[in-house]
Amino acid sequence: MGDCRPLGFLIGLPFAFLALILSVVGAIVWILGTVLSCLCPCCICCAGLANLAVGLVKMPIKVMRWFIEQIPC
Q1: 64, 16 in Cβ contact below 8 A?
Q2: Tens of pLDDT, residues 11-30
Q3: Where would you tag: which of 9, 15, 46, 72 has the fewest CB atoms within 10 A of its CB?
């Protein structure tokens, strides 16, 4: 990663903000999925829901890295 891509960070900020909102939603879904899978371990869909929520939580970092990589030096 070069240090010559400050514009990628600035351009990606609005999209990272939207991804941050989605990550908060993902955290809530993750908590609910974890509670549901503890209450009823036979529900395999709750584990899949929790995995999807973890992906949403990681989204802001993925979005920022993608935008930074798109800006040429």
Answers
A1: yes
A2: 777 877 887 787 788 788 87
A3: 72
